[in-house]
Automatic annotation (TrEMBL):
Keywords associated with the record: Signal
One cellular component term from this protein's GO annotations in UniProt: cytoplasm
Protein name per its UniProtKB record: START domain-containing protein
Organism of origin: Pseudomonas cavernae
Amino-acid biosynthesis recorded as keyword: no
Entries under InterPro entries matching the protein: START-like_dom_sf (IPR023393), START_dom_prot (IPR028347), START_lipid-bd_dom (IPR002913), START_lipid_transfer (IPR051213)
Pfam families in the record: START
Top-level taxon in the UniProt lineage: Bacteria
Signal peptide: 1-23
């Protein structure tokens, strides 16, 4: 479908299907302003998976339009410095994004392969997977080697949509523990908060 041919990528660094097989024991890490963030340890990884859930007073089509504006989505995705669409093919898309990191941590970049689908009840699902070799390496950036994630937008009636944003990632290189621990909470919370503000203004 045309509405699924473009996509918003994850933040800077966001699998109900992919991570669910590897993440267990989701624990509520933040519950504020209607947004809930859950974290889960991932077997064999020092980085936790994250899941953010919020209800937004906007319909699925409004949220989908915001996500289809790939360059524009960088304004509401946490830590996004740049985002662009590389390729579209049917309901699949490939996006490139640069992720801001605080000094002295080296910036990351990310190539995502996104597959979209719309279910019979109007739910839109976008499955995300890193494809680090899709384009050549970029100077002064560390390419994120692994990421699986999912956006799920479920209509709840009366113009309300439940949005879930979930990610499991290996960011590559060295990340200080304080940054890793804050990112997994800030990324889903700030992304969903900014998306909600933009959607509810429309």
């Amino acid at each position: 479908m045309n509405v699924l041919r473009q996509v918003a990528a994850v933040c800077g660094l966001s699998v109900l299907l992919g991570a669910a097989a590897h993440a267990e024991d989701w624990q509520l890490a933040k519950d504020e302003d209607g947004i809930k963030v859950y974290l889960s340890s991932v077997s064999g990884s020092k980085y936790k998976a994250y899941r953010g859930v919020v209800e937004i007073k906007a319909d699925v089509q409004t949220l989908n339009a915001l996500q289809e504006d790939v360059p524009g989505s960088c304004r509401w995705i946490h830590a996004c410095a740049e985002m662009k669409l590389l390729k579209r093919q049917g309901n699949e898309a490939w996006t490139y994004s640069k992720i801001d990191m605080p000094w002295p941590v080296t910036g990351r970049d990310l190539v995502l392969h996104v597959k979209g689908e719309q279910t019979a009840d109007g739910t839109i699902v976008r499955q995300l997977q890193a494809e680090p070799t899709f384009i050549p390496a970029v100077k002064d950036e560390i390419r994120v080697p692994k990421l699986v994630g999912e956006w799920r937008m479920v209509p709840k009636g009366q113009g309300v949509t439940e949005v879930t944003y979930q990610v499991r990632t290996e960011p590559g290189g060295s990340i200080p523990s304080w940054l890793a621990n804050s990112f997994v909470v800030d990324a889903p919370f700030n992304t969903l908060d900014a998306l909600r503000k933009r959607a509810e203004k429309r």
